C-alpha cells in the first residue's frame, strides 16, 4: 500500500513591527514609559527590586572572602573539616528551612510583605553575624540570613514578574537573573578592601555591609504597589485594575486596550489555576 507523506507547515516567526510588541494575541503599541510619572517611578522601583539577586549572591559569596582574612581565621581558631563545612553550609540550611514558609507567606500576606519580611530577617541575621562572639552565634546568624533570603528571593522575582509592564517584563526578569553574579563581584572587592585592617573589623565590617541591599530594598518596597495578580486572587479586583491602569498606561485609563488585556489575562489565568486545583 503506498505511503503518502503528510505536508508540514513550518512556523515562521513574525517580526514585531517597530515600536510595537505582541501581547495576548494582539499587536500593541509600546508605551513611552519615560513620559509618565507613575511609570517612571515603577521602573525605578523594579530596578531596585532586581538588586535582590545581587544581595543574595553577596551574602552567599561573603564566606569565600572571609576565609581569606587572617583575623577571621584566628578568631574562630582556623576552622577546618566538618566545622568549616558547617560555616559554609549554614546559610543554605537556613534557606532549606525557609522553603516550608515562603509559599504560605507570599500567598497569605502578599508579595510586598514577603520582600519586607525577608529583608528584615536578613538584617537581623547580619547584625548577629557582625557581633558574633563565638562559633554558635556565627552559625546561627548564617542560618537566619539563609532563612530570610529564601523568603526574600521567593517573593521578589514573583513580584517583578507580576507587576512589570508586559512590554518590558521579559527584559526586567532577565536582568534579575543576570544580576546574580554582581553580588559575588562586590563581595570579593569588599573583603579585598578590608584585608589590611589590623583588627577583627576586617571581617566584621564586610559582615555588616551585607545588609546594605536589604535596607535599600526594604525602603523601596514601601513605595512599590502590590502585585495585581495577588490582589485579584484575594477578590480585590478594583484595586488591581487601578494599579494596572496607573502603572501600565500613560493616561491612567482603565479602558485602555492594554490595561484591559493585561487585567483579563490575569483573571483568566487565576480561573484556570482554580479549576485545575478543583479537578486535581
UniProtKB/TrEMBL annotation:
Q: Does the keyword Zinc apply?
A: no
Q: Which GO terms describe its molecular function?
A: carbohydrate:proton symporter activity
* Residue intervals passing through the bilayer: 83-106, 113-133, 139-158, 170-191, 203-224
Compartments annotated for it: namely:
Membrane
Q: Gene3D superfamilies under this entry?
A: MFS general substrate transporter like domains (1.20.1250.20)
Q: Which PROSITE patterns match?
A: MFS, SUGAR_TRANSPORT_1
> InterPro entries from the entry?
MFS_dom, MFS_sugar_transport-like, MFS_Sugar_Transporters, MFS_trans_sf, Sugar_transporter_CS
Where is it mostly found? membrane
A Gene Ontology cellular-component term: membrane
What membrane topology does this protein have?
Multi-pass membrane protein
Which keywords does UniProt give here? Membrane, Transmembrane, Transmembrane helix
Domain named Major facilitator superfamily (MFS) profile is located at 45-280
What is the similarity comment for this entry?
Belongs to the major facilitator superfamily. Sugar transporter (TC 2.A.1.1) family.
Protein name per its UniProtKB record: Putative hexose transporter
Amino acid at each position: 500500500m503506498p505511503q503518502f507523506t503528510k505536508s508540514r507547515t513550518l512556523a515562521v516567526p513574525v517580526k514585531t513591527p517597530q515600536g510595537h510588541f505582541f501581547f495576548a494575541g494582539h499587536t500593541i503599541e509600546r508605551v513611552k514609559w519615560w513620559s509618565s510619572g507613575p511609570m517612571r517611578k515603577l521602573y525605578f522601583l523594579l530596578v531596585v527590586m532586581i538588586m535582590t539577586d545581587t544581595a543574595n549572591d553577596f551574602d552567599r559569596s561573603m564566606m569565600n572572602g572571609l576565609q581569606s582574612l587572617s583575623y577571621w581565621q584566628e578568631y574562630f581558631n582556623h576552622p577546618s573539616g566538618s566545622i568549616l563545612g558547617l560555616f559554609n553550609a549554614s546559610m543554605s540550611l537556613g534557606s532549606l528551612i525557609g522553603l516550608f514558609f515562603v509559599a504560605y507567606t507570599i500567598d497569605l500576606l502578599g508579595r510586598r510583605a514577603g520582600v519586607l519580611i525577608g529583608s528584615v530577617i536578613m538584617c537581623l541575621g547580619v547584625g548577629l553575624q557582625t557581633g558574633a562572639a563565638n562559633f554558635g552565634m556565627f552559625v546561627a546568624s548564617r542560618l537566619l540570613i539563609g532563612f530570610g533570603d529564601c523568603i526574600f528571593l521567593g517573593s521578589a522575582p514573583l513580584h517583578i514578574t507580576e507587576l512589570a509592564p508586559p512590554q518590558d517584563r521579559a527584559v526586567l526578569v532577565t536582568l534579575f537573573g543576570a544580576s546574580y553574579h554582581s553580588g559575588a563581584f562586590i563581595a570579593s572587592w569588599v573583603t579585598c578592601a578590608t584585608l589590611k585592617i589590623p583588627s577583627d573589623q576586617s571581617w566584621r565590617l564586610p559582615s555588616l555591609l551585607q545588609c546594605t541591599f536589604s535596607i535599600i530594598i526594604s525602603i523601596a518596597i514601601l513605595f512599590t504597589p502590590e502585585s495585581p495578580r495577588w490582589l485579584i486572587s484575594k477578590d480585590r479586583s478594583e484595586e488591581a485594575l487601578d494599579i494596572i491602569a496607573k502603572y501600565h498606561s500613560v493616561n491612567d485609563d482603565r479602558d485602555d486596550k492594554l490595561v484591559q488585556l493585561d487585567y483579563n489575562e490575569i483573571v483568566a489565568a487565576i480561573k484556570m489555576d482554580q479549576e485545575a486545583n478543583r479537578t486535581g
